[in-house]
């Protein structure tokens, strides 16, 4: 139980990439972490791109990022929706300022772009948003996982084992 007592926000909205949400949640819970599924509304069902549902535990506007150690942004089409909420952008910026782990996979980079936290960072993503990541001031690399300080980024579902290994490692090192 390497992550006992660690608290993590898993953001959600409809059209998330099913594996990019569920695989990290399961891995982190296996390591003893508390993972709260956080959506626009609490106790709301959201459906992934491939039809796998998830019910949110809490709502964006009701949580305090100070109470958490990390945040995960799933891929799929949900990042394009998530980045439209001021509360999400504020949450991601605050967690970045506090040097807390921020995990992003696939299209999730859009949320970090909107939060304006990628300047000077080395990151990866799905190649489909490579130009967006570069235009946000980052150095984009085509690797399964990239860690630059508190930002852990990955490309797509086949890279999830590498992504979670690095995300867990970063969390273990946080005090």
UniProtKB/TrEMBL annotation:
Signal peptide: none annotated. This is Type 1 glutamine amidotransferase domain-containing protein. The keyword Protease does not apply. Keywords: Glutamine amidotransferase. PANTHER family: DJ-1 PROTEIN, DJ-1_PFPI DOMAIN-CONTAINING PROTEIN. The keyword Iron-sulfur does not apply. CDD domains: GATase1_PfpI_like (cd03134). It comes from the Bacteria. Belongs to the peptidase C56 family. InterPro entries: C56_PfpI-like, Class_I_gatase-like, DJ-1/PfpI. PROSITE patterns: PEPTIDASE_C56_PFPI. It comes from Pontibacillus salicampi. The lineage of its organism: Bacteria, Bacillati, Bacillota, Bacilli, Bacillales. Residues 6-168 form the DJ-1/PfpI domain. Pfam families: DJ-1_PfpI.
């Amino acid at each position: 139980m390497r992550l006992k007592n660690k608290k993590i926000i898993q953001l959600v909205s409809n059209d998330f990439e099913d594996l990019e949400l569920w695989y990290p949640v399961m891995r982190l819970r296996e390591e003893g972490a508390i993972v709260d599924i956080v959506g626009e509304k609490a106790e709301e069902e959201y459906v992934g791109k491939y039809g796998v549902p998830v019910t949110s535990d809490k709502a964006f506007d009701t949580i305090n990022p100070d109470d958490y150690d990390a945040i995960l942004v799933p891929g799929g089409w949900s990042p394009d929706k998530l980045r439209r909420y001021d509360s999400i952008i504020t949450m991601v910026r605050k967690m970045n300022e506090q040097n807390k782990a921020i995990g992003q996979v696939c299209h999730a980079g859009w949320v970090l772009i909107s939060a304006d936290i990628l300047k000077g960072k080395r990151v990866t993503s799905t190649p489909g948003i490579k130009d967006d990541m570069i235009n946000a001031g980052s150095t984009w690399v085509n690797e399964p996982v990239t860690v630059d300080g508190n930002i852990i980024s990955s490309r797509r579902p086949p890279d999830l084992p590498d992504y979670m290994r690095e995300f867990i490692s970063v969390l273990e090192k946080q005090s």
